[in-house]
Specification:
This protein has 833 residues and is an alpha+beta fold. Helices cover 38% and strands 19% of the residues.
Length: 833
RNA sequence: GCCGGGGUGGCGGAAUUGGCAGACGCAGCGCCCUUAAAAGGCGCUGGUCCAGGGCGGCCGUGCGGGUUCGAUCCCCGCCCCCGGCACCA
């Protein structure tokens, strides 16, 4: 029956949205141009991977960004608000394997469709700045930077044990492995010894960490995650001499040099290179091999399992504890990792739980070097205390003992203080096709040679067989692989890996500053004007990944003298997920809301409104179909009012500064309080949900006022007040629901866009109050409310409160101890029996 | 285990600096409009007690204590949930 429903009960959102989207686009309303005279605002949302269709997560993040951009426009900022496509990546290649579509075709078709979807949302992008990362005109510049990084040792090639995703058929960087699984496909990652390219992010570990404390516009949790990921720890590195083998020393790292006297054994990672020199007897060597194979066999997942026993193999070699000269046993064990520190440790079971566990299992000596507190019953002790059993360190505090132990190591020439990081270099080689080629060749005569600058870009060839098996697809394209050596002109072979797609997303925000620039990565002056990004908005899933890489890459570009900023993103908003029925939306759960359907049936303004209203941006958003309808109802209500009163409103004065009645003054105060609240909610912490709630309250008040005021005041005054209120609603709601507000604004007789208006400012006169409500408590319980002159003295208010009929019985015959008066808020009468 | 964020009506969520807990919306209930439905409008809506009435009493922000005239907010101890890291030496 709803099929025949007349269109009259819903405002014509489809026509309106199409109309205004066309007007904005044709008029290039949101085009950004450098203008040194105006303050700039760079508003950026993380660009999407063109997977095919947008989902509700996109609707949410782009709605948030759009509110901010439009608000800043209205605030007089010169806003840049760009959009583009993170267009390289595996899904395109997988689609090619599954359906035989070329990744390029698949990608560009997806981009076209998704662009049209975004346009139906009415987002204020400067589409002239659109960037697509799989375009050679884009990635050529990161190839150039690659060459420069290579020259400076910031890009290098090495063979090492890396994370291999068997399903994606490629290496993954450490950041891209989550709990032993691939971040993208969730397959279990296996170690593999392979040669690949790395970016030396570790050279920037200290700076990346130091700046964490200066990124005051970032959420605490993201900063914490980045700090944890970088994982700085201070300590000492020193050598343990091998007993009877003066030529061999084992370097260990510890954060607790003060505990060295408690070292009762030492441990090497099973794959530590010294093991082969230490173990010479064939029988022992066989044992070592067996142990290594066993350790290697256990998967990453098993190694992460809790409470697994620490396995180890005692070697025949022994080492000397240099602090006390004791000969102590040496092990290889699975709990020591080659990838952290020096791959070897001094073991102090008394003060380290892992060592304690291992010592117990292998029946090793435990020496306590810190005095335990009275009644201590635990195992390894990691708390504070005084040093004992520690020779020259006895009696010292832990901090002082650390210093003296290090001084001693330095004096003995055995070691020094060091800082160790958990962060590893960024492995960027991908054994896949759909990515930017690495601009390096291997010449038979010259060895590894970077491609010449004038030969860039190294274009990704189109005609490549993509099977998903058998190594890098580019290796099977002779026309690509075989190329002349840039140095000697002889026969050379190109590198057939492509770059991690996180490289493209590490600088796209810079490209937006001058997206068609042809003589470099970006125009210097443009980047200097627009950078840094003032507000970045995106999902928490990139807390470490993209956000760490982009920070690093920006610093590299700065050191290459290409850009001036130290950090790309001044402020970050990490928006929560969109949830439905208590779970993340997914096809398998059947709880997916399709943005296309939503926009078709209820309109973009309603979709945006609910996305912004249902929760503050940083929290997860619980999608609720009935709630969305509530949003539609609200917009209809505004529509009916404005259209229904259009004649009166158009004829009215734009404001009524001095209403002649109390009701008028009160209503006008509501209008201006709303302006204040909405502005505060946006400025303070992007709490768009409460901003919208405030506008809803104003609309409710508007209806109430309209109903009550008909004969209560002069018609011209009433009309002016109604107009002032309706215009405030339209201006305040504009950034949230741009189409309907734009349309109604026009219907009120305005010829210029809402987004060319100045953001309204609350009128101080309207806000002023003569009387305020003061709550009266007796012993902390509310007993009455008083309406009191704003300027009443505390003594007056106290007198009024004590004289109040509802207060008196509660005081009764009790003695009044004291009376607390909070001006303009509250009186608390404190009594005693 | 460590770090971070949380716990408020049937639900999503408000409460800016320690000062009226539950704004706004959803759901629900009642009424109005209508031949009827849809749409819309108006009102009620934390629990509980007092036969009923009230501008009523009491309880109430995960639990137990504390500080304070006053605590959703601060402190101490616990429980639970979410996220991150995790044999990191």
């Amino acid at each position: 029956m709803s099929i025949d429903r007349p269109a009259g009960d819903r405002y014509p959102f489809r026509a309106i949205e199409a109309k205004w989207q066309r007007i904005w686009e044709d008029g290039k309303q949101f085009r950004a141009t450098e203008d040194p005279a105006r303050p700039k605002f760079y508003c950026l949302e993380m660009f999407p991977y063109p997977s095919g269709r947008i989902h509700m997560g996109h609707v949410r993040v782009y709605a948030i960004g759009d509110v901010l951009a439009r608000y800043k426009w209205m605030r007089g900022y010169n806003v840049i608000h760009p959009m583009g496509w993170d267009a390289f990546g595996l899904p395109a290649e997988n689609a090619a394997i599954d359906n035989g579509v070329h990744p390029a075709i698949w990608t560009y078709e997806n981009i076209d469709y998704m662009r049209s979807q975004l346009k139906t949302m009415g987002l204020s992008y400067d589409w002239d700045r659109e960037v697509t990362t799989c375009d050679p005109a884009y990635y050529r510049w990161e190839q150039l930077v690659f060459v420069k990084m290579l020259e400076r040792g910031l890009a290098y090639r090495k063979r090492s044990t890396v994370n291999w995703c068997p399903s994606c058929q490629t290496i993954l960087a450490n950041e891209q492995v989550e709990g032993g699984r691939c971040w993208r496909c969730d397959s279990e990652v296996t170690p593999r010894d392979i040669e690949g390219w790395f970016f030396k992010i570790t050279a920037y570990a200290e700076e990346l960490l130091a700046w964490c404390d200066r990124l005051t516009g970032w959420p605490e949790r993201v900063i914490t995650m980045q700090k944890n990921w970088i994982g700085r720890s201070e300590g000492a590195a020193f050598d343990l001499p091998v007993a009877g083998r003066p030529e061999l020393r084992i370097r260990v790292f510890t954060t607790r040099p003060d505990t060295a006297f408690g070292m009762t054994y030492a441990v090497l990672a099973p794959e530590h290179p010294l093991v082969d020199q230490l173990v010479t007897m064939p029988a022992e060597r066989a044992e070592v091999e067996r142990f290594r194979a066993e350790v290697l066999r256990q998967s990453e997942i098993e190694r992460l399992a809790e409470d697994r026993p620490k396995r180890g193999l005692r070697l025949s070699a022994k080492v000397v504890n240099p602090f006390n000269g004791a000969e102590i046993p040496l092990f290889i064990a699975d709990y020591v990792l080659m990838t952290y520190g020096t791959g070897a440790i001094m073991a102090v079971p008394g003060e380290d739980q892992r060592d304690w566990d291992f010592a117990k299992r292998h029946d090793l000596q435990i020496i306590e070097t810190v005095k335990r507190p009275e009644g201590w019953t635990g195992e390894a002790y990691t708390g504070d205390g005084v040093k004992i059993n520690s020779g020259f360190l006895d009696g010292l505090t832990i901090a002082e003992a650390k210093r003296q132990a290090i001084d001693w190591l330095v004096a003995q020439g055995l070691g020094e203080a060091t800082i160790n990081y958990r962060l590893r270099d960024w492995g960027i080689s991908r054994q896949r096709y759909w990515g930017a080629p690495i601009p390096v060749l291997y010449c038979e005569r010259c060895g590894m040679v970077a491609e010449k600058e004038e030969n860039l870009p190294v274009v990704l060839p189109r005609d490549v067989q993509i099977s998903g098996k058998g190594g890098a697809p580019l290796a099977s394209a002779p026309s690509f692989v075989n190329a002349p050596c840039p140095r000697c002109g002889g026969r050379a072979r190109r590198d057939t890996d492509t770059m991690d797609t996180f490289v493209e997303s590490s600088w796209y925000f810079l490209r937006y500053c001058s997206p068609r620039h042809e003589t470099g990565m970006f125009d210097r002056a443009a980047a200097e004007y627009w950078m840094p990004v003032d507000q970045y908005i995106g999902g928490i899933e990139h807390a470490v990944l993209h956000l760490l890489y982009a920070r690093f890459y920006t610093k590299v570009l700065r050191d290459l003298a290409l850009v001036k900023v130290d950090e790309p993103f001044m402020a970050l908003l990490s928006q929560g997920m969109v949830i439905k029925d208590g779970a993340k939306m997914s096809k398998s759960k059947g709880n997916v809301v399709d943005p296309d359907d939503l926009i078709r049936t209820l309109g973009a303004d309603t979709a945006r409104l609910f996305s912004l209203f249902a929760a503050p941006p940083e929290k997860d958003l619980d999608w609720n179909d009935r709630g969305v309808e509530g949003g539609a109802r609200f917009l209809n209500r505004i529509w009916r009012f404005a259209v229904g009163h259009a004649d009166v409103l158009r004829a009215a004065a734009r404001r009524c500064e001095t209403p002649s009645t109390d009701a008028g003054r009160q209503f006008r105060r509501t209008i201006h309080e709303t302006i204040q609240r909405v502005t505060g909610d946006i400025e303070r912490d992007f709490h768009f949900n409460t901003a919208i709630a405030a506008v809803m309250e104003l609309v409710n008040a508007l209806h109430a006022f309209e109903a009550a005021s008909a004969d209560a005041m002069p018609a011209t005054e009433r009309a002016a007040l109604l107009r002032e209120a309706v215009e405030a609603v339209l201006l305040l709601l504009g950034p949230f629901c741009p189409h309907v507000t734009e349309e109604l604004w026009q219907r009120l007789g305005h010829t210029e866009s809402v987004f060319k208006q100045r953001w309204p400012e609350a009128d101080g006169t309207a806000l002023a109050r003569e009387e305020v409500t003061v709550v009266v408590q007796v012993d902390g319980k509310i007993r009455s409310r008083l309406s009191v002159d704003v300027n009443a003295s505390d003594a007056d208010v106290e007198r009024l409160a004590l004289a109040d009929d509802k207060v008196k019985p509660w005081v009764g015959s009790r003695r009044i101890d004291k009376v607390v008066v909070v001006p303009r808020r509250l009186v608390n009468v404190v009594t005693r029996a």
